[in-house]
Structure formats: structure tokens, C-alpha cells
Amino acid sequence: MISRKASLLLIAPALALMAALFLYPLGFSLVSAFRQEDGGGWGAGNFLRAWQFYSADIVFSLVIVGLSTLLVAFLAAAIAGYLTLGENRWCLAVLRWLYRWPLFIPFVVAAQLMRTFLAKNGMMNNALVELGLLTPFTTHSYLDWRGIVITFVWKQTPFVALLLAGAMAALDRSTIEAARNLGASRLRLLWDVVLPQVRPSFGTGLILSFVTMMSVLSVPMMINAQTPTLLTVDMAWRINAYGDYGLANALGLIAYAMTGLVAWFYLRQGLKENR
Amino acid sequence: MIQKTEAQPHLGRSISLSDLHLGYGGRDVIAGLSLEVRAGEFIALLGQSGCGKTTILRALAGFVPVRAGRISVGGTDMSRTPPEARGMAMMFQSYALWPHMSVAQNIAYGLKLRRRPRAEIRARVAEMAALVGLGDLTARKVQDLSGGQRQRVALARALAIDPPVLLLDEPLSNLDAGIRATMRHEIRALQQRLGLTTILVTHDREEAMSMADRVVILEQGRIAQAGTPEEIYHQPASPYVARFMGLGNRLEARVEQGLLRTGNGTLPTGGLHAPQGTPEGPAEILFRAESARLGPAPGPALALSGQVVSAFYLGSAYRHEIAVGDDRILVDAPQRHQAGTPVGLHVPATALSLFPARSQTSVTGQEAAMAAIPTL
């Protein structure tokens, strides 16, 4: 047996790394968010200014990321559901092969890709014009809030679908068969039997996606250069243009509070159900 | 326990399997199986694991595709009908209850799918819960129930939709011995009262015999024998069935001029159960430990002499291992005989099953290998 002290010693390097690389910078940014710009001292000045300048962006971020999370939830459930309940072998093989691709593409590349795809004379509009569904004069660009949502959904759906399909594959198949045996259609199977049983994985996947999307800088920078935009862009701007770390950190804390709120809702729901 | 309620008896539908072929991958597990089940009949499919009994049940429910042949229910061909449209209720070995639903929600689900009015569903759930003896547990979560209670929920869920056919996949195998005996009786009583056509899959012969009207014994995807429990028990059609029905003692023998000879005993073949005839030549005899006696037996019997090797207590009797020549057999007796005691034992002719020795084509791999070694 290793003594208590010796085991502390064993994990000390890992703890030190955590403290130095994670806890210290986090603590520092939290503290500096409450540090006043002019003359030092403590206060909520940074937050007041953040709200004054960027209240529209805060709401915009919440709406865009929330909407993207909802769409990701819907599509991931559809994909994982088909992978679990589908019976057409050919469709299953193609879907299984295709759906994971966006996972391996970085956000910045995805944004670049969407720029060429969604622009006024991008690939999508060109294709629609070729098909005769639009004329060159009626096309318009999707490089605004819609572009951000499309890119986020395209990039994050495979991640949640992957988690979800794994959880569904681990389900007791007989619970699905029992429902089918009693007369449940595919859609009802998914809604009544499969999804409720994989809720923990689903929730985790969606929260991780929410956090990821909240922290992406490249996509709003490249797709939506106008205002309102996402908080990450404002933070980068405050730091790069003004060296205003206090306000940037205050915005960071607001973003952190938004994700924390979502996580708290989710955890509370989970606790309620387990009671 | 199960209470009497006003469940309306109705007749289940007949089932006809004709020349059925089922399988997984490149292999046919069931090849050319035919079976007729009368409406309201209780059939037990009995066999070792891997004999294809669960495959048949799953094919009836629609989860295993029919490769060739026909499954018809009440005269309608259902071979290609998807599981959700068959209207059969299956009870799974693992019960397959939905952990995120309460007992009442589990039982009600089939009715909810059928869009019955809420009041009717509530009444039916209460009726089913009373029927299977769940009483006031309907508000509980499934995880809070014991094995026996879960089994009752699974049964209630299956019965709630008023199915014409009930499929039971080893429903009692996860229960402890005491509850199993009661549930056997209860399921049988329910089936009789509701008049459901029921197919039970099991590897437990007592379960099969005590519950079913007819027992079908499967051997490697084929029907080895089908008959009433009494027929199967007393008149096994093949050595496989005999061994499966507990005729655990096997002795090699010869039939010569109407006389059975084995080790140190002889017996006329006249009164023996010999479903495959009594051709002259090598044969095997099979009998149960409980039908042999250490001491004289009334009526014609095969007399053998041997020596006690060991004895162990079963509760109702002592089971003795006896060496008869090079063979070892098991015999029950009310008193313990010490190891080493020479004994005379008798097997009544009515308790013996005689089969011609297996032909060369059916010998086991090891026997074939032994036969292939040239004698020096």
C-alpha cells in the first residue's frame, strides 16, 4: 500500500500542471474582469460597459447558438435514429460513411468552405440558377446570421450524432423490439423508447456543442462581418484593437455564465428524473 | 397473486407453419419446419440452446425474416408482414420493460399506440394489473420492482392489447425456483381463461410439460417429436428426445432372436418401448434413475448386477452411482447403500426405451476417428 502522502506526491505533477495552465489563467481572467480600467480598484464597471456596448451581441450570441443547438439536436436525433432503427442496408452504409466527415474539418476550414458555398454567386446559388429555380438577379447571399447557423449545424451535428448513435447502439435491443411488437412505428420508437433512454448522452452532447459554438471565433469573423455578431468577435476586437483586457474578460465571464446556465438547467433536469 | 377479474374469454387464432426456412447469414437455422397450432392451444418449444427454438418465436413475431415457406395466423399469410403490424404480443426473456416509464405507462403503451380513449386505458391498466397480481404497484418505476414483479408487468403489457397470439421467450428463466413454480401455474391458468393461442420457448422440460398442451422437441432446427407431455415423457421417439426427457441411463445392448442382451442381463423385447422397431443387432437402452430399483421389481424387468460406487442425497431419495461392468448408471433408492456394496438392480420393462444402435453416418467425430485407427 502507498501512504497518503506518497500518493499525493504521485499526483503532484498533474495537479501542478492543472493549476498552472488552467486554474491560474482562469482565476486571473475572472479577477481582471472586476478590475477597474481607470485608476484601479474593484467594481462592475467592465460589465456595465460590456452591456452598454454589446448587449445586442450578447442576445445575438444566445439566439444564434441556441437555434444552432436546437437544429443540431433535431438532425443528430434523425441521423442516430436512422442508424439505429433503419433497415435499408445500402442507405445505412452510405449514411454511416458520410455523416462523420465534418468532424475532421476545422471550424476555420468549414467557414471558408461555407463562404464559397453560401455567397451571392456561390456554389449553392449557382446550382439553383443552373436548375432554373432562381435567376442571377434573385439570388442573395446567405453570409449573415444564417451562414453562421448553417456552418455551426453542419460542423456540430456529426459530433452529437456520433455520441448519440453510440448510446443507442448500447441500448437493450429488446426494449425496441418490445415496442415494435406492440405496434410502434419507427418515429414512435425513436420518440417514445429510444430517445428517452439516451437522454443523458444527448444532453451531454448538446451542452458540449453549445460550449464549443460559444467559443468559435473564426466562423463569425469570416461569415458575418457586420453587426450584430458573436461575443468571441467582440472579445478579440477589445484585445487586439484596444488592449482592453478588462472588458474582454467581462464578456468572457458573460459567455461563461450563459453556458453555465444551460448546464445547470440540464443537470437540474437530470436530478429531478433520478429522484 | 392473480385475482379473478371479468376478463372476457376469447379464442386465439390458429397458427400454421409450413415448410419454414429461417436463418442468419449464410446458414439456415430452421430448414423445412412444419407445425400446426390450434386456436387456443398452448405449445411449448423445447430444446437445447442453439436448436432454433427462439429463432422460430422471433420469426413468428416478425423479427427474423422468412427465407422460404409460410407463416399463417388465422388463415392469413403473415410471412412478410412487419412486426408492428402482426398484432402478436411477445414477452421477452429480459422482460424488455422501458425503464423510463412507470408500471402503468408500460402496460398502457400498446393501448396508447392504438389511440384508445384515456379513460378506457386507465381502466384497462387497472384491470391488467389486478389480473397479474400487481395491485397498487402501477405508479412505481420499473427499476424499483423485483424480478417477479417485472415479469408480471411484462405479462400485463403483453396481455393488455388483447392479442390473439401470445409468444413467451423463456419467461421464467430469470426467476428463482419458488416464484417460477407459482408463475407457471398462473400463466397457464390465465392462458386457459383468456383462450389465447400461446407459444412458449424454454429449455426446462418440467416447465414445458407442466404448462403446455403439446410439447415440440427441437433438434438442430428440426422437430424431433411433437406430442402431449405424457406421450413425450413415456414414449420418446428417439434417443435424443429420451435423453432430453431425463432418460439419463444408457446401456449398450444387442437384440438377438427377440431377446435383449446387455451386460449380464437379458429380457424379451416384447413389452419394451421401441419406437424405431427392434431389428436384430446392436442397440441401446435408456431409462430413468427413478424407474430402476435396487431390489426386485414387480412384473417383467431387466435384472443387472453391479457395485455401488457412490451415493448422494436428493431429498426424496438417495441417488446411487452403480458400476455395471464398464458402464456407470444412476439408480434411486429410499435407503443409502454404502460404496462397494454389491447390488442387484431391476429396471421394469415398461420403463425401458430401446433404440437400434446409431448408424455409421451418425456416429460422433471422436468415434469415427477411433474407428479410422487401423488395428495393430
TrEMBL record, chain A:
Keyword RNA-binding: no
Compartments where found: Cell membrane
Domain of life: Bacteria
TM annotation in the entry: 59-85, 97-118, 148-171, 205-225, 245-267
Cellular-component GO terms for this entry: plasma membrane
Domain ABC transmembrane type-1: 58-266
Its membrane topology: Multi-pass membrane protein
Any Pfam family the entry gives: BPD_transp_1
Keywords: Cell membrane, Membrane, Transmembrane, Transmembrane helix, Transport
An individual GO BP term: transmembrane transport
Family: Belongs to the binding-protein-dependent transport system permease family. CysTW subfamily.
Record's protein name: ABC transporter permease subunit
Provenance organism: Pseudooceanicola albus
From TrEMBL, chain B:
PROSITE patterns the record matches: ABC_TRANSPORTER_1, ABC_TRANSPORTER_2
Residues of the ABC transporter domain: 15-245
Gene Ontology annotations of biological process type: quaternary ammonium group transport
SMART domains, alphabetized: AAA
Coiled-coil intervals, chain numbering: none
GO cellular component, one term: ATP-binding cassette (ABC) transporter complex
Molecular-function GO term, any one: ATP hydrolysis activity
Keyword annotations of the record: ATP-binding, Nucleotide-binding, Transport
Entry-linked Gene3D superfamilies: P-loop containing nucleotide triphosphate hydrolases
UniProt cross-references to InterPro entries, sorted A to Z: AAA+_ATPase (IPR003593), ABC_SmlMolc_Importer (IPR050093), ABC_transporter-like_ATP-bd (IPR003439), ABC_transporter-like_CS (IPR017871), Mo/tungstate-bd_C_term_dom (IPR008995), P-loop_NTPase (IPR027417), Transp-assoc_OB_typ2 (IPR013611)
Name the UniProt record assigns to this protein: ATP-binding cassette domain-containing protein
